[in-house]
Design a protein that fits this description.
The structure is a single chain. With about 150 residues, the protein is an alpha/beta fold. It has one domain: Nucleotidyltransferase, domain 5. Helices cover about 40% and strands about 35% of the residues. It contains 5 helices and 7 strands; from the N terminus they run βββαβααββαβα. A 5-stranded mixed beta sheet has the order 3-2-1-4-7, with helices on both faces. Strands 5-6 form a two-stranded antiparallel sheet. Helix 1 packs parallel to helix 4 (about 105-115). The longest helix is centred in the C-terminal third of the chain and has 18 residues, at about 130-150. The N and C termini lie far apart (about 40 Å).
């Protein structure tokens, strides 16, 4: 099963109130498009944490192994896999250099577990450049961040 996962994260203040927006798209054998959207807000978070949570949420929602193309405007997420940073972090026990710990280890470990059952590729797209699903994810993420901010 081929799935496209679109995701975006947002944070007001960085750290501050934040949210993610995720869209899963699947075209069934009859050619029918199935879409599911996810979003959630958090009171105190960062943009990078929300970028990670969006991808994690989408992958964790899949109930069987899939071929997944993750489309994100986050270089932080895409480059970690496409530039093989993640492999180096794992080899060095999530350290950069001798003493600097990689940020957001809890979410990187959760993302690695979420990726495991699937064949996943990461595609970077420029944010705020008119990509329809990326723009929709941005709206979901900012709406989630703004709704938390008002509570």
């Amino acid at each position: 099963m081929k799935v496209t996962l679109y995701s975006d994260g947002s944070s007001r203040g960085n750290p501050g109130p934040g949210g993610y927006g995720t869209i899963l798209e699947y075209i069934d054998p009859k050619g029918e498009l199935h879409t599911r959207e996810y979003s959630e807000g958090f009171l105190q978070t960062t943009n990078n944490r929300m970028e990670l949570m969006g991808v994690i949420t989408g992958l964790e929602a899949l109930n069987r192994p899939c071929e997944v193309n993750v489309v994100t405007d986050s270089k932080y997420v895409a480059d970690a896999f496409n530039q093989n940073w993640i492999e180096g972090w794992i080899k060095k026990d999530f350290r950069r250099g001798k003493t600097d710990e990689v940020k957001n280890i809890d979410l990187w470990e959760r993302l690695l577990a979420a990726v495991k059952p699937h064949k996943v590729t990461f595609t970077w797209v420029k944010g705020h450049a008119g990509h329809p699903q990326n723009e929709r994810c941005d709206k979901l993420a900012t709406r989630a961040a703004d709704s938390i901010e008002k509570k």
